[in-house]
Amino acid sequence: MSASGGFWPGEAPAEQDDVHEPETPTADPPGWPTPHEEEAEAEAGVEHASAAEPEEPAEEETEAEPEVAPVGHAPGEIDIPDGVAVLEGSPSGADRTVGVVVSRFNGEISNRLLESALGALSAAGVAEERITVMPVPGAFELPIGAMALAKTRRYSCVVALGCVVRGETAHFEYVAGEAASGLQLAGLETGVPVAFGVLTVDTSDQAEARIDRGADAARAALEMADLFSQVRKQAKAG
Question: What residues act catalytically?
Answer without folding.
Answer: 171
